[in-house]
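pls read this stuff:
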Amino acid sequence: MVSRILEQNSILPENTRIRRANNSTDDSEVLVASVQRDDDVSRIRTFPTPGLKGVIRLIRGDHSSALENICNELTQAAKFAANDSQVEFLRKYEESFQTGSLNTYRESQWIWDRDEAPRVDFSSIHTLAYCASIIFPGINLPNEDGFKNVIISNRMATESRALQYPFIDPSEAETFTKHKFPAYHWCVVLHELLGHGTGQMMVETEEGKHNVDIDNPPISPLTGKPITTWYKPGQTWTGQFADLATTVDECRAELLGAYLMDDPEPLELFGFTASSELALKTQLDVDGLQGLSNFNVNTEMGQAHSRAHFAILKCLLLDGNGPVTVVHDGLAKAVRVRVDRSKILTHGKVALGSMLPRLHMYRCTADASACRAYYEELSAVDGEYLEWRETVLANKPPPFVFVHANTFLDGEKVVLREYEPTAEGVIQNWAERSV
């Protein structure tokens, strides 16, 4: 309800959180992350809740102190920018943190996107520090003007050496181990560059104005008929799809990568082989089982990527006619994935090719209700899948511990400080970052 009211007032939700007001159980407070604080009650924006008691208050100043430190560092960083575009990007970035304006944040990203790169830019990089609670192997920034993509190579290399779930059938273990890293790299490339980087939203930008010919609308490949839904003024992907937004788009990106992985031209370009393709298909299925470990039986929800991987595995099992089988022994607490090479292209790809356009069209046409009906059923963990989950948890290896370095100024010198890959090292690393 709160999200809908914010959407109607063109307020983006990504840098907000919600809490009940202290003085009333009927009022809600939406806290906006920003340096500027709405300590003066007269500056707080208030919105009614039609048909209900109470109001919604939009209050800036959440995480104010930490963001102020970040803004100070951005000011210093601008002194070392390579060109005027980078200076302007950093200034807009800082302004967005100062005011809490996500529109200003988007402006900063458009400037960064156009800086010294074509519309499709792709880079493999090593990070010195990655300041986030989850360190993803790749990142994509899509927007109206283009997109940039990066692979975090040292993060991926670290994961490839970590202890894995024992889900590979022994007959495929040697081939899988040999090709796992290049196949994983290839999957992330396709996932970021073409998965997240493609697709046009059908949008009514303002009353009566559309980015598509509404008198001659596109034909939906799902129904064979003209599309009937699109994003209305002020509506956004995250606002319309709510809790499904992230997991559905991660699933869409993963599906596109999986569908294109056998294309001979890009495979040859990256120096990959059919064995790499097999390893990637096997990894896709292993990820589906591994995703069960992040399923919460109480809330019936899971981490976005894990839920996506499990949905893809179920698609292959239910609609693929045999490219993948899962062998489960509950007593021995053992579960194995088996991939039938002869059915990867003839059956597996066909199943993925049926699932992919569904999610793509739901997303592009704002058809959240159809998406929810389809995706929630496909990603549901029930029956024998709950039994698989118990076995997965029984075989769960230690979690990854990524600990990056910090840099400090010692006079005119920059000093690099590294930490032990332990829980204590992670805490020390963040504490010494002073944000």
